[in-house]
Write a structure and sequence with these properties.
The chain is an alpha+beta fold and 382 residues long. 42% of the residues lie in helices and 15% in strands. The structure holds iron/sulfur cluster.
């Protein structure tokens, strides 16, 4: 199997290539764009590995630098606190973990492999734990293809050593206070592997179909220029209502319920097509009817020290031109030694007002509010 195939059917991109096999051929030639967030995540993973291997606490590394992928990160209170929560979780699992284990699921997806963060394997049950440093999107373990591929790889590599009939797959995402656990039997795991085998093989061909959709397109490197995604957005925007009888001029609540799930995909595509057009123009491919100009900008202070001195010399009192401001709560958490240490102090000195009402899908875990009057006073429903 070629090196390219090794990189192609990755576990972390499984949600994309399983749902859109053609994404492999569309992204094959595109450069990998490692973001600073991804590099920060890799640095945190490195700290997890160090701590679990040498039995130290994450705080022992505070102030140390971790160099990765051309970036350098200093272990600060926030990183140490997040990593420690993961280490504490791993210590609740019976047995010594295998750390950062390369697992191959080549029998399912040609050339596929990945790195499992922690594996604790026993007769009866295998624990596979994945650390997520990101604080943007909450990731759940339920039916998660990345974790299932790692588990298949672990079974392929170590299954002969243990009689594992159940897998506990866990995601620890400390910066969102989120731990998600899910169990699957080895039989169901292997059956799922058989289901995706033909998809993986198809994905490596030149005729693999494109199947756009919100979850697979979200992190696809081809999403800015993908025609299938553009077609889907346009077709969705051209949605036709079934004609009510008699004909009415305003949307019914049923119409709104039909439209709401469709708009997310159109919204994100609209932003992406603007980004793509700007990128093309910046790279010397003008878009007919458009031109590049300097964006609007607003005045701002130059060197703060010079501003301060100048205004003092002009006879002003600092109280007239300086505003004392409290730092943000996140920054205060760092100052107080991380989330855990800060919690009891912040409990005393912070308030959490009720958020503005937001409309979310029924699957959201927050309790529902009910409007109690036409002016929309809200109360919680258990
Ligand atoms: S943007 Fe969406 S449809 Fe296009 S290749 Fe990527 S995942 Fe497939």
């Amino acid at each position: 199997m070629s090196e390219i195939a090794h990189a192609l059917l990755g576990a972390s991109s499984a949600i994309r290539w399983i749902n859109c096999p053609g994404s492999i051929r569309l992204t094959r030639e595109l450069p990998d764009q490692t973001s600073e967030f991804a590099a920060l995540g890799s640095a945190a993973h490195e700290l997890c590995e160090k701590c679990l291997n040498d039995g130290s606490d994450a705080a022992d590394y505070m102030g140390n630098d971790i160099k990765l992928k051309g970036c350098e990160f200093t272990v600060d209170a926030e990183m140490a606190d997040a990593v420690q929560q993961y280490i504490d979780y791993i210590h609740t699992i019976p047995g010594e973990p295998l750390i950062e284990v390369r697992v191959s699921y080549d029998e399912i997806a040609p050339g596929g492999f990945g790195t499992a963060d922690a594996l604790n394997l026993h007769d009866g049950i295998g624990y596979l734990t994945d650390y997520k440093h990101g604080a943007g999107i909450r990731v759940d373990a339920f039916d998660n293809p990345q974790l299932k591929l790692y588990a298949l790889g672990a079974y392929q590599e170590f299954g002969f050593l243990h009689n594992i009939d159940t897998w506990r797959l866990t995601i620890v995402q400390p910066r969102l206070d989120h731990i998600s656990e899910w169990e699957i039997t080895t039989r169901d795991l292997l059956a799922w592997g058989e289901e995706i085998k033909p998809i993986a093989e198809l994905a490596l061909t030149d005729h693999a179909p494109l199947h756009p959709g919100e979850k697979q397109c979200q992190f696809c490197r081809a999403k800015l220029s993908c025609r299938a995604r553009a077609d889907l957005a346009i077709q969705t925007a051209m949605y036709e209502f079934s004609e009510p009888t008699p004909k009415v001029d305003t949307l019914s609540d049923e119409d709104v319920a039909t439209l709401l799930p469709l708009v997310g995909n159109i919204e994100s595509w609209c932003k992406d097509i603007r980004t793509y057009a700007l990128q093309r123009a910046e790279h010397g491919h003008p878009i007919a009817g458009y031109k590049l100009v300097s964006g609007r900008s607003i005045r701002r202070w130059g060197d703060a020290e010079t501003v301060h001195t100048t205004l003092l010399q002009k006879g002003f009192d600092p109280n007239q031109f300086e505003i004392r401001k409290l730092i943000g709560i996140g920054a205060a958490e760092k100052l107080l030694g991380g989330k855990k240490a800060a919690l009891p102090i912040l409990k005393e000195i912070t308030i959490k007002p009720q958020g503005k009402p937001a409309l979310v899908t029924e699957s959201d875990k927050r309790p529902a509010l009910i409007a109690t009057s036409a002016e929309a006073d809200f109360s919680k429903v258990a």
